[in-house]
Design brief:
Elements (H helix, E strand, L loop, with lengths): L2 E12 L38 H13 L7 E2 L2 E4 L9 E4 L9 E6 L5 E13 L3 E3 L8 E3 L6 E7 L6 H18 L11 E11 L9 E6 L2 H20 L7 E6 L4 E7 L9 E2 L6 E2 L2 H9 L5 H10 L5 H8 L2 H14 L2 H19 L10 H12 L5 H12 L6 H8 L7 H13 L2 H9 L5 H15 L6 H13 L3
Parallel strand pairs: 11-12
Antiparallel strand pairs: 1-9, 1-10, 2-15, 3-4, 3-14, 5-6, 6-9, 7-8, 10-11, 12-13
Helix pairs in contact: 2-3, 5-6, 7-8, 7-9, 9-10, 12-14, 12-15, 14-15
């Protein structure tokens, strides 16, 4: 039997507000446990929540970024359940009237194909605390610093049909929230994580199968691996005569498997009801229009501009525009050197390779955009050749110079373009290579092109790599052909 995978994602994005959604406590990452949880976050008697306006602004900006409906009136609800990291006994969320309604997101897959994925809605809610299991010898510690941190939960329709599509969608969400500046998207720190709903059905069947929810997956790679394992598990279970149970599961990256956590709850298990401590959020059209006018250029528009205005290939434009930090760096490099294609080649090539080797983010690059742009300019104006450019880049990376010009001067890498100097080196090489010259002269004309490489190498060696390769090739061919 042929099977079809059905996937929907619930993406939790931590909003980049300085304080929590209902209190003035800090949201800064990395503080000592339980030092950033105030009386409101702890649900102390007599405390009342006050909505953080910035969280509302950021939610609306996201909705506008995915062409979604923005609710003029939205309502907070209490989601009631007991857990140790939820001191109030309920989570303030939006169940029935979320702030962002239906929208769409177009994603580009690895093969270049486009896929439209519908967004069901996005709602505001507060985060719970964090359970710590590692250091307590059979007990669990609770850190409530995260309690009350503002989250935007983005719920897709079940429109994805493969792990690759799910990952592409998640990357697109990550790009949008970071471009908007509403989240840093740091998955390692929990700023973005997702619940993955997976089911399978026979191909051609309209009815969905029973889904399992994989909770709190926190990397693109883990989403892909978790989906792959879960799809195989469900298919094997059904083909062996079993049935898939609706449940919540966890993904274990060490074992590369999902395992059961609890049976999946329904909405009525949480006894949702409107929060009596918070008024409805009422937005007027002028407020929405003001936020719409202030939106930055988003990934799709930037990618299109990189192709149409700067002449980048579809692939290069897509890769660079996927990250706001990389796109900004690239544009700064291009602003200095004035050659978008060369800027794209260096950013995706030497720079990205060095960053990956050192496990660095582009914001941590030892080579600034201005330095790289200057380096490319020196290649374009023939001050240095390609080989010397790699040496200059490495020196800048290692902090050996303030600028490309300073490194070129200090290391004597300036390209020799004086025809007389190059001719003198060529004459010396020819004089010292009688056997190779004889072979060149006696060779068939169509084989001489490959043989000239020996002479080029010797001239470049004599010039310590500073001779202009194009001039060397041209002058060598003229001098050797004159001997035939």
């Amino acid at each position: 039997m042929q099977w079809e995978t059905v996937i929907g994602l619930e993406v939790h994005v931590q909003l980049a507000t300085r304080s929590k959604i209902f209190s003035g406590a800090s949201t800064a990452f990395g503080a000592d446990a339980n030092t950033q949880a105030c009386a409101v976050d702890l649900g102390m008697p007599g405390t009342l929540p006050v909505l953080n306006e910035q969280a509302v602004t950021m939610a609306v900006q996201f909705g506008l970024g995915v062409n979604a409906e923005i609710a003029e009136t939205s309502v907070f609800d209490r989601k009631n359940y007991f857990y140790a990291d939820l001191p109030k006994g309920y989570q303030t969320s939006q169940m029935y009237h979320p702030i962002v309604g239906p929208g769409v997101l177009d994603v580009t897959l690895d093969d270049g194909a486009a896929k439209r994925i519908r967004i069901h809605h996005a709602h505001l809610e507060e985060d719970a605390g964090k359970s710590l299991h590692e250091d307590f010898h059979g007990m669990t510690g609770i850190d409530l610093n995260r309690a009350g941190t503002p989250l935007l939960e983005i719920v897709s329709e079940p429109d994805m049909r493969s792990a690759k599509e799910a990952t592409a969608y998640l990357r697109a969400i990550h790009a949008i929230v970071t471009y908007l500046g509403i989240s840093d998207g740091n998955m390692a720190e929990g700023s973005m994580r997702c619940d993955v709903n997976v089911s399978v059905r026979p191909k051609g069947q309209a009815e969905f199968g029973t889904r399992a929810e994989i909770k709190n997956v926190n990397s693109f790679r883990f989403v892909e691996r978790a989906v792959a394992f879960e799809v195989e598990r469900q298919i094997e279970l059904i083909e062996d005569g079993g049935t898939v149970v609706q449940e919540t599961r966890l993904y274990d990256p060490d074992r590369d498997e999902t395992r059961s956590m609890r049976t999946k709850e329904e909405a009525n298990d949480y006894r949702y009801f409107p929060c009596p401590d918070l008024l409805p959020i009422v937005l007027d059209q002028a407020y929405i229009d003001h936020l719409r006018a202030g939106l930055p250029e988003l990934p799709d528009a930037k990618r299109e501009r990189f192709e149409s205005k700067l002449g980048l290939s579809a692939y290069d434009a897509s890769v660079i525009a996927a990250s706001r930090d990389m796109a900004d760096y690239f544009e700064d490099v291009n602003g200095v050197c004035g050659d978008a294609k060369q800027a794209a080649n260096w950013v995706q090539g030497a720079l990205s390779g060095a960053l990956n080797r050192e496990h660095l983010d582009i914001r941590q690059s030892p080579v600034s955009a201005h330095q790289l742009g200057e380096l490319i300019s020196r290649v374009l104006d023939d001050t240095i050749n390609g080989k010397a450019a790699k040496q200059v880049f490495q020196a800048l990376w290692d902090g050996e110079g303030e600028s490309a010009d300073a490194v070129i001067e200090a290391k004597g890498l300036k390209q020799v373009t004086d025809t007389g100097a190059i001719e003198a080196m060529i004459d010396d090489v020819i004089a010292q290579s009688p056997q190779q010259v004889t072979q060149y002269v006696e060779a068939e004309p169509d084989k001489r092109g490959k043989m000239i490489g020996y002479f080029v190498g010797q001239v470049m060696k004599a010039s310590r790599g500073t001779a202009n390769p194009q001039q060397v090739n041209q002058l060598l061919k003229e001098k050797l052909d004159a001997l035939v």
